[in-house]
Amino acid sequence: MRLAKLAFTLSFLAAVSLAGQADAKTRLSISTWGSPKHPQVSEFIDRFVKAVEAKSKGDITFKVFAGGEMVKQQFVSTAVPQGTVDISLTTLDTWSGRIPEVSATVSPLWPYSMQMARDDFLPGKPIFEYYNKRLQANGVVLLTLFDIGSPVLSTRTKITKPEDIAGKTIRTYSKGASELLQAVGASPVTMGVGDVYSALQRGAVEGALGGIQGAVGLKHYEVTKYVMVPNGMFGTLVHAYVMNKNKWDGMTPAERKIVQDAATEARNHSEDFMIQSYGKFVQVFRDKGLEVTEIKPGSSEWKVWQTKLAPLAERDRKRYPAALIKLLDAAK
Q1: Has residue 17 got a pLDDT over 60?
Q2: CATH code matching the domain that covers 152-235+287-331, chosen among 3.40.190.170, 3.40.50.150, 3.40.718.10, 1.20.1260.10
Q3: Hey, which residues does 153 pair with through a beta bridge?
Q4: What is the mean predicted confidence (pLDDT) over 39-51?
């Protein structure tokens, strides 16, 4: 009888121990929005998730929510700090309500090309740590920072110079991008990426400013006739993956290293892919019959836009913190 009780006790303790081990496992939720075919999703998520699960030997697992199923683009800056989701893709400039200087990414002062971003937007680098410090003060940790390239302007009428856009209603994605469009005479309307196609189709907006990969993936070429590629004149689209700070702080140092290393590896791969494929996305518009206008740096068209944006550049130089301006000047 005593042996039977001892066996039962040992079995019970073993079951409790196994349950405790199961409870010790970390399960993270990760959210994306926009086209699942966008390289920032298709080239990042699967690689990141598999790397973390492999490096942690299954102690860290994920639940993935795609296409804005959990959090839409414009609500990430609220949802992640609140813990609605643990990790999410985000557009850095959508945090401008909390961190005004993120709008520098769509300022005429922004000096980074995609190639520069590949090497400079990494943990430990000054620009990464500058924004990571400010994001942490707002409840999230910066896992990755990357450049998806110059935004493009998809329109129903041809735009090559500032007077062409004057008075036109243009979709934008953030406060900073809206300020830039206002500076060249447009009337910006902020809307999430998922609403752009129908707005263009109905004529609710006459054009849309956004990432080239998303414009192709969401088939904006079906409802527009022209595309302008500013090549950095309108700043660039700096995106990131951010994580709820409380969730991050609750992991062990070893777990944090696994997540950070895997995120950096997946980010480097996806950034390389986007650098190599940007021109191919431009060609898709041509292949679909759209007229493409590229504003080449240093060209007469570039100088016209630059002159129009000069007052905004001067204002930005005065309104952003001196520490950030120093970083931007050093990168030129």
Answers
A1: no
A2: 3.40.190.170
A3: 209, 228
A4: 97
Coil, helix or strand for 133?
A: helix
For residue 67, the 8-state DSSP code is T
- Give the architecture (CATH level 2) of 20-148+238-278: 3-Layer(aba) Sandwich (3.40)
Task: Report residue 13 as tokens.
Answer: 């303790």
Residue whose entry in the numeric block shows the structure tokens 């110059």: 150
Q: Which amino acid is at 158?
A: K
- Distance from C-alpha of 211 to C-alpha of 220, rounded to nearest angstrom: 11
Give the pLDDT confidence of 208-250 residue by residue, as tens digits.
999 999 899 999 999 999 999 999 888 889 999 999 999 999 9
How far is it, in rounded angstroms, from Cα 96 to Cα 102?
6
pLDDT digits (tens, 9 = 90+) for 97-139: 999 999 999 999 999 999 999 999 999 999 999 999 999 999 9
The CA distance from 299 to 295, in Å, is 7
Q: What residue type is 290 in one-letter code? A: L
Q: List the alpha helices (DSSP H) in the chain.
A: 2-24, 39-42, 45-55, 76-82, 114-120, 126-136, 162-165, 175-183, 196-202, 212-217, 245-249, 253-287, 300-319, 322-331
- Evaluate whether 240 touches 146 at the Cβ level (below 8 Å): yes
Q: What is the largest CA-CA distance in the chain?
A: 96
Helices (H), 137-239: 162-165, 175-183, 196-202, 212-217
Question: For residue range 135-174, what is the model confidence (pLDDT) as tens digits?
Answer: 999 999 999 999 999 999 999 999 999 999 999 999 998 8
pTM (predicted TM-score): 0.86
Question: What residue type is 323 in one-letter code?
Answer: A
The encoded tokens of residue 182 equal: 């206002």
